[in-house]
Amino acid sequence: MKPLRGRVAVVAGATRGAGRGIAAMLGEAGATVYCTGRSVRGRPASGEDRPETIEETAERVTELGGRGVWVRVDHRVEEEVASLFERVKDDEGRLDVLVNDVWGGDALTEWGQPFWELSTEKGLAMLSQAVHTHIVTSRLGVPLMVERGGGLVVEITDGDFHGYRGNLFYDLAKATVIRLAYDMAWDLKDRGVTALAVTPGFLRSEAVLDHFGVTEENWKDAVAKDPYFAESESPAYVGRAVAALAADPEVDAKAGRVWASWTLAREYGFRDVDGRQPDWGRHIRGAVAGILSRGGPPSDDERMVLRYHRGHIDLDPAQADVARRIDEILAR
User: Fold this and answer.
1) Left, alpha or beta for 149 (phi > 0: left; psi -120 to 50: alpha)?
2) Domain ranges of the chain
3) In 280-318, which positions are buried (b, 16+ CB within 10 angstroms) versus exposed (e)?
C-alpha cells in the first residue's frame, strides 16, 4: 500500500533525527520527498560534528519505495528557500506536504540556568534557526498549496502541552512553532490547506543513540543506564505519524492543534519499526504517579522527573491536583 503515491513533500531539516524519519516514512508511503538541510557529503554544516547528510536521507526515501530528492538549503536565507520552491513548482507542479523540522538548537541550549544567566547570543541564534526558518519556509512554500486548494503543513515541536520546558529560549522555540501552526491554520481556513504541529516522544535520534553508546539494533541495552529509555521511539514512529496525517482525507479536523506521535498511533494504528507502540505521555504520567504514591522523599532522579513534569502541566487546570502534590513533595 502506497497511499501517498503521486504526492510531493518537502521536509525542511531532513538531515537527521525526526526530519530524516519523517522523510523516510513519507517515502515508505510512496511520496516524492525533497529532503533539505545544510549537511552534504564533504561539506557538513558549519559547527556540526555529525556524519549524517541529506543525500543519505534521500537515498533512504528511494529505498523505501518513494522518490528522494536532496537539495542543499540554508533555511535562514530567503533566496535559497525561494529557489527551492521554484524548483519544486517547475519539477513537480504541486506541493502536498510541507514539514518544518529545522532545529539545530541542542548545542545552544543551556540547561539548568535561569533566564537572566543565559547567553542572549545563543538564545537568539536558536530562535533564528528554529523559528525564523519555519516562518520563511512556510511563507514561501504554502502559496503552492493555496494555488491548488490542498495540502498539509506540519510543525515539528517538543511536547503536546502548553507549560514550561525548563529553559526560556528552548521553551520559546518549541512553543512558538505550536503557535505558528495555530496561527497559520486560521489564515488557511477555507483554503483547503491544513496546518498543525506534531511532537515525538523520547526520540532515539542518531545523537541520542551515540550518547548511550548503542545503535538502533541494540538500543534496549541502554535501558539499564536510563529506565525511561525503555519507552523511547525511533524517528520512524513520528515519521509514520506524519505519513498517516498526510493520507487522512479528514485531516482538516486536526488543524491548529498539537498532536503527539503516541496519540496518533492509537488513532491510526501504526507501529514503530520494532512493532512496538510506545506511549511517552502515559509512561511519564505513570512514573510520576508512582513517585507520588510512595509519598516518601524522592531521589535526585525522581526530583528531576517531578520538576520536569511540574513545568509541563502548569497551565493544565485538569492537572491542578497533581501539580499541588508535586509542589508539596518538592518543598520537603
Assistant:
1) left
2) 8-278, 284-330
3) bbebbeebbeebbeeeeebeeebbebbeebbbbbeeeee
What's residue 46's pLDDT?
A: 62
State the catalytic residue, choosing from 170, 182, 237, 268: 170
Angstrom CA distances, 146 to 9, 191, 195, 216, 243, stand at 15, 6, 12, 39, 20
Give CA 165 to chain center in angstroms: 15
CB of 276 within 8 A of CB of 300?
Answer: no
**Which CATH number does 8-278 carry?**
3.40.50.720
- C-alpha grid cell for residue 169? 529560549
Task: Say what the pLDDT of residue 120 is.
Answer: 98
Q: What does the block give as the cell for 203?
A: 526520540
Task: Label residue 73 exposed, middle or buried (CB < 10 Å: 0-12, 13-18, 19+).
Answer: buried
DSSP 159-182: -SSSS--SSHHHHHHHHHHHHHHH
The whole model's pTM is what?
A: 0.96
CB 311 within 8 A of CB 111: no
Question: What grid cell was written down for 103?
Answer: 532545529
Q: What is the largest CA-CA distance in the chain?
A: 64
Does the annotation mark 228 as catalytic?
A: no
Read off φ and ψ for residue 72, nearest 5 degrees: -75, 120
Backbone region of residue 196 per phi and psi (left: phi > 0; alpha: psi in -120 to 50; beta: other values): beta
Q: Enumerate residue ranges in the chain where pLDDT < 70.
A: 46-48
Alpha carbon distance 4, 244 (integer Å): 9
